[in-house]
Amino acid sequence: MIRVAVLGAGYWGPNLIRNFSACPDTQLVAVCDKMADRLKKVLAPYPGVEALDAPEALWSRGDVDAVAIATPVATHAPLALAALRAGKHVLVEKPMAAGVAEAHAMVAAARDAKRVLMVDHTFLYSPPVRKMKQLLDAGELGDLYYVDSVRINLGLFQHDVNVVWDLAPHDLSIMDYLVGRLPKSVSAFGACHADSRNQIEDVAYLNLDFGDGLTAAFHVNWLSPVKVRHFIVGGSRKSIVYNDLEPAEKIRVYDRGITVSQDPEARRGMLVGYRTGDVWLPHLEGGEPLQTMVRHFAECVGQGKTPLSDGEAGLRVVRILEAAQRSIKNQGARIPLDDAAKE
Question: Is-above-0.90 flag for pTM?
Answer without folding.
Answer: yes
